[in-house]
Structures are given as C-alpha cells and as structure tokens.
Amino acid sequence: MPELIEVEQYREALDVLCGGTVRSLDIADSAFARPRGVPLGVFDALVGQALTATSRHGKLLLAHFGTDGYVVGMRFGMTGRLLIDGTSPIEALEYASRRNDPAWDRAIIDIGGRVVAIRDQRRLGSIELDPDTRQLGVEASAITADALHRVCSRRTKAIKAVLLDQRLIAGLGNLLADETLWQAGIDPRRPAGALSEVEIDTLASTTVATVQTLSARGGSHTGDSFELRLDGARCVLCSGSMTHDTVGGRSTWWCATHQS
DNA sequence: ATGCCTGTTCTACC
DNA sequence: CGGTAGAACAGGCA
User: Fold this and answer.
1) Cα–Cα distance between A200 and A152 in angstroms, integer?
2) Which terminus of chain A has a lower count of CB atoms within 10 Å, N or C?
3) Which nucleotides of B are covered by protein (CB under 7 A)?
4) Distance A21 CA to B4 C1' (A)
C-alpha cells in the first residue's frame, strides 16, 4: 500500500471533513467491498451520519460515524489513493501508473458536499463496514522492545516475514521493512526467535525512528536504501554488495556485508 | 514479451 | 498449532 506513512497522510486529509454529514455513498465495484459477498446495501446505513473522527491502525484507515458507532475501514492495496474533491495528499505512488483516471474510483462518499474517493487502479484495496481490528497486531510506528520481543519470541520464521505479518505488527510494508532491517544491520532471513535481546531493542527503536524519519521526508520510498534496490548496487553504509532474493514471499534487498 | 511491483487472502502441503 | 510456497486478484511499466 501505501504503507502506514501514506495511510496516515490520507487520514489527515480525511480528518478535515469531521463534522460533515454523509449525503451519499457509492461503491462502484461490488468486488471492492469486504467481506466478500457483503450486500452493498449495508453501507446505506451511513447516509445521514456525521463523520465524528478518523483513526488508523497499521495500514487500515478508519472513519468513525454518528453516535451508533459505525466505522468504515479503508484499505488501499498496492495502488490505492484517497482523493478529496479530486486532489490527494499523494499525487503519484511508486510502482503505480502516473495516469490518474477517475474511472479507477472504487468508492465515493459525499461528506457535507466534499467528495471523498478511493482511487485504486489495481483494485487490490477494499472498503468494509465495521472491520475487525482485533486481527491486527501492534502498531508499528510506536512499537516497543517488549512488544517486539513478544512477537518474535520462539518464532521460527524470518524476521522480515514477522515485520510484514499484519496480524503480528500492523503498518509495515515491503519498503519500510527492508529499510528498517538495513538500518538495524539485521539479515532479513534470520529466524525471529534467534534475535538477541540487544538486536530486538535495536530493531524496535530503529522501526520507530525509520517511520518517523520517512514520514518527515514524505513517504515509504524515501529511505536511504531505496536507491539501492537494483542489481550491482553498493551499500552506502559500508560499500558491501546489495543482495536480492525472496524473503517472506516478498522481493527483498539487503546488504550482504553489514546485515548479519 | 516477459517479469516486476509500497498488498491481502486463499489453498495445498509439510 | 507453525510455517512455506504458489496462486489469485489486477494492470501498467521497463
């Protein structure tokens, strides 16, 4: 997605509309709604409800409506953007088309006359009424060493796979995970449970710092290792050679020298 | 033309 | 229970 940094930008844009009332809600593509097969009519309950607050859990953007506790969850897949009156806090996503076609608007909500749209070329995002946030793990942007220790403890799968598992840690995507491990000097293939206490401490604080730094820079693609994601690249920290393989099911780049 | 891509979810299998 | 691999979803770009 849009990783948590981008979704937070979407949340801030949406938050401006708090106080407005839903005039209409249109989901253009029924396949975009979750859970699969849910009748689109359930979303009609939102019409007439006021947007009271916005929040975010990992990559899930939550819009809270009315006094009855309606919550709309929005996911943005690989190429989803949030637009308000046709403009988005993120004009173009890495790895997405530079085209910007209104035909890709999968859900449109009129809140107090302002038009909120989820524009998603690839349709890997979704919208859901009252999503179950208990399925999501600890928020990555504020993860503590204790929380990371609990998540890694006795787990045999690769640390990169743990960082990406939204049920364990919510918010990190492929770029943030690679950048964090690169900054922390940890090999993405290491079994999570084999990390030392010191490495867990380092990884937790590096995760928080990386999210903070890249947020200030403006996106998940602004990490110091992002430009090293190509064959033959040399690590800018130690001049070791960058390695590319699949880890945790995702394309992974790391420094063969200083990440151990 | 083939492979690749900031994601999630499902099945099959060990 | 834990974990892995592959496919599916989908579409544009190098």
Assistant:
1) 8
2) C
3) 4-10
4) 42
